[in-house]
Amino acid sequence: RILFLVAQEILDSRGYPTVEVCAGLRDGTVASAAVPSGASTGRYEAVECRDGDPNRYEGRGVLDAVANVNDTIAPALAGMAADDQAGVDAALIELDGTEYKQRLGANAILGVSLACARAAAQSHNLGLYRYLGGGEARVLPVPMFNVLNGGAHAPGGSDIQEFKLIPVGASSFSQALRFGVETYHCLYRVLQDAGLPTTVGDEGGFAPTLKSNAESLELILRAIERAGYRPGEQIAIGLDPAASGMLKDGRYLLKRDGLSLSSDEMTDYWEDWVASYPIISLEDPLADDDWDGFRNLTARLKDRVQVIGDDLFVTNRKFLQRGIDSGACTSVLIKPNQIGTITETQQTIRLAQQARYTCLMSHRSGETCDTSIADLAVAMDCRQIKAGAPARGERVAKYNRLLRIERELGEKAMYAGRSAFPHLSG
Ligand code: PGA
Ligand code: ZN
């Protein structure tokens, strides 16, 4: 049973405030969880509570969210069973009472939801993945390593926010991690040899200023080969253009290429790339209000690439259902803080799995060393996860957690590999 809940303001990886919640149970268990924060956020994400006080952290303080936990949520949840996750989350949703959690803040609510789950898992002496997923949870997700950053995460870099390595050909998670790290280090040398800077963006990927967007792909292919891997077969490529951020007056603006494209032309552009490079995953290739564009693009490309809705679906069942009904995307990005509770995250994943959409568990560009998403990916059988480059503490925390889960599962562990991408096997 919940004895206390205490929140405090801590910093995320960009140096902005975020919420950490500590949950204490009557049996003496104490556990905490911290909440991440995005930069290229979707329009209909659950709302973060920020103070707006210009004299503190540019208005980005979270003292109000902290107070909402300490003064409103804590007294309401005191005495509840921490291991009744559905009950805890239902109480949080009811207490907030708004569709997008703007009263108490999704940062306050998710912090409590996660801290309760952590405390309950600990009190049952189980890893979080095992507590939430049961004895069946044993599939390690395919990691996507964001090795070149652009867009809102590295202004001045590529127009495309994320270029990711996908080690589909590895035989275990630990081997997949090694494939990714070795290639990341080779990319460092490829950039150095080309006289390009090796400074990094928000998610730990390199962020050089290049002459064209396609040059990023050429550099990555060179790095994969230099590391001794076969592009496509062992390491494929995934993109997140986060295209809402490229939209200006109804046209997609690609500054590096000097292009201004309609939705159809933008789709032609991606089709051309998918035909020319070993790209197997494409996230938010169009803007989050371009539902018709998404439907067309999905119909044209779905046999060759996984089409993921991130800003389009915002981990919300309602928008995912609209996608399923209209044929938009074949995959959904899962960011717990876009929706605000573990239970709702599970519901979205379940809906996706029923509709044969794939699920990609995801961090945010502003992170902490909290590793919950690693456990959630295994517990909910997501089969894919992205947590940034295989470098920087807040990114590798998730990958290291997956290494530990894989070791703990021992013989039982299974690496999702190519099976995570149904379109690859037709
Ligand atoms: P964000 O970006 O965390 O800044 O929203 C991640 C993404 O777009 O996938
Ligand atoms: Zn995205």
Automatic annotation (TrEMBL):
SUPFAM superfamilies, A to Z: Enolase C-terminal domain-like, Enolase N-terminal domain-like
Residues annotated as binding Mg(2+): D240, E283, D310
Pathways involved: Carbohydrate degradation; glycolysis; pyruvate from D-glyceraldehyde 3-phosphate: step 4/5
Cofactor: Mg(2+)
Active site (record annotation): E203 (proton donor), K335 (proton acceptor)
Recorded family membership: Belongs to the enolase family.
Alphabetically ordered keywords of this record: Cytoplasm, Glycolysis, Lyase, Magnesium, Metal-binding, Pyruvate, Secreted
Binding site for substrate: H153, E162, E283, D310, S362, H363, R364, S365, K386
CDD domains for the chain: enolase (cd03313)
Subcellular location: Cytoplasm; Secreted; Cell surface
Record-linked SMART domains: Enolase_C, Enolase_N
Pfam families: Enolase_C, Enolase_N
One GO term (biological process): glycolytic process
Gene Ontology molecular functions: magnesium ion binding; phosphopyruvate hydratase activity
Positions bound to (2R)-2-phosphoglycerate: Q161, K335, R364, S365, K386
The protein's name in its UniProt record: Enolase
HAMAP family referenced in this protein's UniProt entry, alphabetically: Enolase
Every Enolase C-terminal TIM barrel domain range: 137-423
